[in-house]
Design a protein that fits this description.
about 230 residues; single chain; 7-stranded mixed β-sheet; 10 strands; 3-stranded antiparallel β-sheet
């Protein structure tokens, strides 16, 4: 899987470097730690560095610290509906299914920061929340193919389907298609054009789909069998 488009987060980092954005002073061998962080901390970080510009449905957030400086963030959430992911699991709903919904790194973070915060936070997800499966998506619109997921040993599941709207831009902010009726009462053109005459609707596109299997032993083999179907 390759992409000729530069990843959006890479472009943000390049811009910040070119503008001379400040970099923290780190020790020669900085102490590295991944730990849970407050939602507000994750939201501020993601809004600055993640391409969608919002923290979405994040519920469980983790940060990679180098010394005392936050270098990378990853957020997880529960499935958007009871039937989410069941088509990939032979119509079963196993315990402990989550989705990686946001992730970003600073312009000064080392190249391994993304895979480090993911792999370490997945261990914490298993310990703290009994996570068994974690799905993740790479969006081609942002120049993503999932390199960071591959580096963290995810399994590739192919491309998603692409039906219906993917997201809207309303009053200058990006909203997932599911969030629009909750926020504005309806996703109908008649309603939205009244709120924002220049709103934009973007068709859902195919994304690269990955899964991290955190279960072990017999359960891991069973889940691998379901996914292979």
């Amino acid at each position: 899987m390759t992409s000729t488009q530069a990843a959006w987060q890479h472009l943000v980092k390049e811009r910040k470097r070119s503008e001379g954005a400040p970099r923290p002073t780190l020790g020669e061998r900085p102490h590295t730690a991944v730990r849970p962080i407050e939602f507000a901390v994750a939201r501020e970080f993601v809004e600055e560095y993640e391409w969608l510009g919002n923290v979405g449905a994040a519920k469980y957030c983790f940060g990679l610290y180098l010394d005392s400086h936050l270098a990378s963030v990853v957020c997880y959430t529960t499935p958007p509906s009871p039937r989410a992911f069941r088509n990939m699991l032979a119509d079963r709903s196993p315990h402990g299914v989550f989705q990686l919904c946001r992730g970003a790194s600073t312009h000064w973070a080392p190249v391994w920061a993304g895979s480090k915060v993911i792999s370490s936070s997945l261990r914490l997800m298993r310990q703290l929340l009994d996570a068994r499966l974690v799905f993740a998506y790479a969006d081609p619109r942002a120049g993503e193919v999932g390199v960071v997921y591959q580096a963290a040993n995810a399994l590739y599941l192919g491309l998603t389907d692409s039906r219906g709207p993917g997201h809207y831009v309303i009053l200058g902010r990006t909203y997932h298609a599911r969030a629009v009726p909750k926020k504005f009462g309806s996703a109908s053109h008649k309603n939205l054009v009244r709120i924002d005459p220049s709103y934009e609707r973007y068709q859902r596109i195919k994304k690269h789909r990955y899964v991290f299997i955190l279960a072990r032993g017999v359960e891991r083999k069973q889940l691998l069998g379901l996914l292979s179907m």
